[in-house]
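Lecture 7, part B: from sequences to assemblies.

Below are the input chains for today's worked example.
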Amino acid sequence: MIEILQNLSAGFATALSPDVLVYAFAGCLVGTLVGVLPGVGPLAGISLLLPVTFGLNATSAIVLLSGIYYGAMYGGSTTSILMRIPGEAASVMTCIDGYAMTQKGRGGAALAIAAVGSFVAGTLSIVGLMLLAPPLAEFALRFGPPEQFALLTLGLLVLAYMSSGPMTRSLTMAALGLLLGMVGMDTMTGLFRFDYGLAELGDGIGIVPVAVGLFGISEILLSAGQAIKSDVRSPRLRELLPNRQEWRESAAPIGRGTVLGFLIGILPGPGHIISSFVSYSVERRLSKHPERFGLGAVEGVAGPESANNSATSGALVPMLALGLPSGAVPAIMLAAMMIHGIAPGPLLIQEQPALFWGVIASMYVGNVVLLVLNLPLVGLFVNILRVPYSYLYPSLLAFATLGVYAVNNSVVDVWIMGGAGVVGYVLRKLDFEIAPIILGLVLAPMLELSFRQSLAMSAGSYGIFLTHPISAGMLLVAFVLLLLGMRSIFARAAEPGAFASLAPSAGPEQEGKS
Amino acid sequence: VRSLTIDQVAGGFFTAFSLLVLWEGRKIPFGFLAEPGPGAMPTLLACTLLICSLALIAGGRAGKRAAAIQWTEWRHAVFILGTCAFMALALERLGYRLTIFVALLVLVTILEKKSWIAGAIFAGCFSFGTHYLFNSLLQVPLPQGPFGL
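Predicted structure of the full complex, as structure tokens:
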């Protein structure tokens, strides 16, 4: 414990240095704006702003990106409560009771509860991150290649299992991402694969152009041409104070949301979204008056808002301790670390203590900054929605191009970004979840290396994955998840009418009749 | 074709893609199962993708029809992608400032139907402003075009 406190004080020395403090502040501010703007969620925001970090050192870069990540969670609640426009997906549940409170004239109180809940959850979950990540990383130091392979396989399968759609869809996306990760030089033999003579593909397909294309460009393509409601109304400062009953009713949901969010955030998958949904349903179930939900129950704001903020810190646990991103946002942050020459993995905390503890401390500072920023400046943030989208998306497009080009000074990356944008656009239109692609792309080299190293260790025996207890345990869990996923696939295929489309007369007309 | 579901269409596409990868991967040494070479993992992954794609086709027979998807924003999307392609082609020929200026001007005035003056002011401020921020302040090298632009 004393060691943790010593490390933390060193972290605060880093986090409170003027330059890091500026980036923490900038990250929180930009993150809040990203969260406020509908359609530009934390994923697209971080993808598009990743290039800004290229000129910075690793600590400042991760501090900035973390600030954007949890800042977006704060910002997302503002438009949800005041205008029923979720700035990002995790704020959908806040819309229900938050907007109902606004209609009753309690919008200011809802904003204050959301901000305080987010602050409490954010701060407590950082304590969790701080206490959990170092021992987890120490435990992971026992991992050899078989355990690493099993962990990566398990991570991908849990993500596929936790995804919103059928497991086959997520697995297809993960396999596609892993295949993209096979492009470029084989690290063990030096042989080039699928590079088609393009020198730029020798190092593989870059994570940045794919991430910016899949998330940023596809978002621009989907939302361009759509009018965004800009009926802006912001509460006055004196309306921001909740009454005693609202405070009392919010305390327990904030506590429960914090714990739920942190635990769900650790698991692979869109933890910040799932946790807000779970928290809302838990609060509704536990409430003595569930009929109030949907009509302006303050618990419906406090729980989900705390949960989604807590989940952001939870998501950083496997990323910082194991080098295993639990979702698309941590995957992009991992890519940013690699761009800055930081090798992710269990050794990160030992080898880069200034980075790890600096980021932890900056998150404490960031949460205070967000609380101070959000409530008094709520009116200003809401006014961001007055910026016409016809000027906003061309700026985002130009900014994405600039950033992607700046990584390697290569126009091939700009083409890859465009291609990934088209793929992301089509897949999102088809309701496919694209996060597993980026996760597959990030994990592919590690997965292949650990697989081949394991077999080299065992002189070609696949039994090595089962004779190592940790690896065997993780692969068993992965296998069970696969079986559970397959059960739902077979159930889907066996549904009545599943084979209707094979019938000669089947088609839109037939469908219309039924 | 109109009666196919989304999963069937996507599954068909991914099946074709995985077969293409398997075909292209045959040139890379596979090694042996006990001692995998550089071609082993791509082949295994392509097989995984193939199996997932076939499962997608088999399991998606009762899903939403592909024909039911609305592509209302396709004109905007094609125009934006065209602008992206222009930026990729022009960036190292015309330089950063000129390329971004033209791209933004075209998007704002032609696609979004804003006035030429507003478009030119916006495009000029953005292209020159970001060039100054990144190239001069953050020392990120950006391509220069004719006349040092």
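Note for the exam: Chain A touches chain B through 78 residues (CB under 8 Å). Keep this in mind when comparing with the next example.
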